[in-house]
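Quick one before lunch.
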Amino acid sequence: MRLLNKLKALLGGQTPLPTIEASSLKIEDVGKMLRLLDAMPLVEVTCDEVNEVLDEFTEAAVRGENVAELMPLIHQHVQKCSNCQAKYLALKRILQAMPVA
Ligand SMILES: [Zn+2]
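Model of the zinc ion complex:
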């Protein structure tokens, strides 16, 4: 979450950036910055954080909810972390095997 705070500060938090004048920003630089931001995930969650909400996440997924939109960070982590993905798939199998309450 540190990165997010940094971004918030950059994008007009209480910390102005006296060293950068908007007029001195070149459009190429802005493009470069945007591409950089686009290329990296905004916030990383840890396996621990995923573990905490994995049952909630999986239940929503089993209910057919759009978890990619509901919990994008968790979804993103589960997509690329084989550990959490294995746990998610196992949990999903269990939930799907249970009769709907
Ligand atoms: Zn993980």
